[in-house]
Design a protein that fits this description.
- The protein is of the alpha+beta class.
- The chain has helices at residues 7-20, 26-36, 44-54, 60-72, 115-127, 144-151; strands at 76-79, 84-87, 99-103, 109-112, 137-141.
- The protein is globular, with a radius of gyration of 17 Å.
Length: 152
């Protein structure tokens, strides 16, 4: 799979890794490139198959370690409902909670950032004496492109 990825984005994550003192190994970088090349969320095994094109010896632990690293650094998000992965729209330039819109027809995923939604969730939780430590907001439906294709 030939990937034409925004070199500015790669440079940004490389700089973040240097600043944090963590290593962006060739495998981690390649898995990130594969995730970014796909508008749809990618499963670990889809990523493994794509990675094998350039690294035939790649095994599942290689991909899972790369995914763990990329998640930990905030460069990607896990789509909980489908056990798949997408790139983060800000690559952890700032800590945020995202809301994912997942098309059940074409599997494309759109990441939204809405601080007012997070504020509302936090306020509602606090009313009940609850401290949110993590949240996942995923909405399933049909995207605009698929909706227009269905109507035709």
């Amino acid at each position: 799979m030939v990937i034409n990825l925004d070199q500015t984005l790669l440079k940004q994550i490389e700089e973040i890794c240097v600043a944090r003192g963590v290593r962006l190994t060739p495998q981690r970088k390649r898995v990130f490139e594969l995730i970014c090349a796909n508008k749809k969320a990618s499963s670990a095994y889809e990523l493994l198959e794509d990675l094998k094109e350039s690294e035939p010896q790649a095994k599942p632990p290689t991909v899972y370690r790369a995914l763990d690293f990329l998640l930990e650094q905030g460069f990607i998000h896990r789509v909980e409902s489908t056990n798949s992965y997408i790139s983060c729209c800000s690559c952890n330039a700032h800590k945020h909670h995202s809301h994912l819109l997942i098309c059940d027809n074409c599997s494309n995923v759109i990441e939204l950032q809405d601080d007012s939604l997070v504020t509302l969730l936090t306020k509602n939780a606090e009313k009940h004496g609850f401290n949110i430590t993590n949240h996942v907001i995923e909405s399933h439906g049909i995207c605009q492109q698929c909706s227009s294709e269905i109507e035709e």
